[in-house]
Design brief:
With 358 residues, the chain is mainly beta. Helices cover 8% and strands 37% of the residues. The chain has five helices and 22 strands. Strands 14-15-22-21-17-18 form a six-stranded mixed β-sheet, with no helix packed on it. It has a five-stranded mixed β-sheet with strand order 2-1-10-5-6. The longest helix has 9 residues. The chain binds the ligand Nc1nc2c(c(=O)[nH]1)N[C@H]1C(S)=C(S)[C@@H](COP(=O)(O)O)O[C@H]1N2 and molybdenum atom (MO). Molybdenum atom binds next to loops.
């Protein structure tokens, strides 16, 4: 069965898709996603940053403002946290009608080990004032969205910003943070969707009032229609993905594999609560069987966990589905609800396989 998108992909969508690549799903085999295979989402241009004059400014509702150089940041105690990051728009291209933006199918995800300074320590040192409610992160990249000229900015509630595992990262998988992932410094908030993890950070500002900038109040809200104020997109909902089995057809990417007992593997994650189950269906969702859950990468609750499922593949054409649930009881739907921005579409993955006689 050929899958037909709702309407033709536009040139603008294609332009976004070639700038912002996904993670090839075969990379699900690897615990950590190699830097070049990790997905990328860049709203505007990758800024050119002179590291010798770079400063991280800290201001707003704090007792002591500061402007730290990279050397000063690197001299501070650091830690590393392994995190699965997913773009909130992952799955957007399969919604109908398709919201026009980066047309992700399923590949807007990756897992990396991020090293840097704990945000909490910086904030405590600065002395957060009584009235502070949110922490605003400002990037160095500028652009225009829906006619609003802006720098990329997102805020976090203070209690989220103070979580121990929130990192201002300058290393990714043991390497210096590369330009496309936010060098020299980016925020990583484990469990939250991608947009939270502000890249190319130049300023951290403590606010006494909620931030109402574009990326907070216009974008990244689950809205039923254009007039709906909606609710903010925050943590990742559960998702399981499988490594596409067998070999692909170059053009359609449909899979071919020989008959016999085949073990499928994949990964599952949720930013809301630990993964409870992964299930596989080989009959179009009529029946589901439990996959075997493995470990979280580096024992990090914030990193995907592996799963495997043994299937007796009989000759013919089959569709394999997989779905995850987390400990809040949240289970991936067969078809997720539509929303204006096309966010958080965690409908089950379907993989068509042609099983050939051995
Ligand atoms: N400054 C800045 N930060 C940003 C973005 C951006 O365009 N500018 N994109 C966000 C979005 S939407 C996502 S999904 C993640 C992607 O991070 P990655 O490209 O390192 O995978 O970065 C987030 N941080
Ligand atoms: Mo994103």
């Amino acid at each position: 069965m050929d899958e037909v998108l709702d309407a033709n992909i536009t040139l603008e969508e294609l332009q976004l898709a070639t700038r912002n690549h996904g993670m090839p799903l075969e990379a699900l085999r690897r615990d950590l996603t190699p830097i070049g295979l990790h997905y990328l989402l860049i709203h505007y241009d990758v800024p050119f940053v002179d590291e010798s004059t770079y400063r991280l400014e800290l201001d707003g509702e704090v007792e002591r403002t500061s402007a730290l150089t990279l050397d000063e940041l690197r001299a501070r105690p650091s830690f590393e946290v392994t995190v699965t990051m997913e773009c909130a728009g992952n799955g957007r291209a399969r919604l109908s009608p398709r919201p026009l933006s980066q047309p992700w199918l399923l590949e807007a995800v990756g897992t990396a080990a991020w090293r840097g300074v704990p945000l909490r320590a910086l904030l405590e040192e600065a002395g957060v004032r009584e009235g502070a409610r949110e922490v605003l992160f400002t990037g160095l990249d500028c652009g225009i969205e829906k006619e609003v000229e802006q720098v990329y900015q997102r805020s976090l509630p203070l209690e989220e910003a103070l979580r121990d595992e929130v990192v201002l990262a300058y290393e990714m998988n043991g390497e210096p943070l590369p330009p496309q992932h936010g060098a020299p410094l980016r925020l990583v908030v484990p469990g939250w969707y991608g947009m939270t993890n502000v890249k190319w950070i130049s300023r951290i500002t403590l606010l006494s009032e909620p931030f109402e900038g574009y990326q907070q109040s216009a974008a990244y809200r689950l809205r039923l229609d254009e007039d709906d104020e909606g609710v903010p997109v925050t943590r990742m909902v559960p998702r399981a993905l499988m490594v596409p089995p067998g070999i692909p057809d170059f053009h359609t990417r449909e899979r071919t594999l020989p008959a016999g007992t085949r073990t499928f593997e994949g990964r599952a994650w949720s930013g809301t609560a630990p993964i409870a189950t992964v299930e596989v269906s080989v009959d179009g969702g009529a029946t589901w069987e439990q996959a075997k859950l493995g470990e979280h990468v580096n024992s990090s609750r914030w990193a995907w966990c592996s799963w495997t499922y043994a299937w007796n593949a009989e000759p013919g054409r089959h569709e394999l589905w997989c779905r995850a649930s987390d400990e809040t009881g949240n289970m991936q739907p067969v078809a997720a609800d539509w929303n204006v921005g096309g966010y958080a579409n965690n409908s089950v993955q379907r993989v068509t396989v042609n099983v050939t006689r051995q």
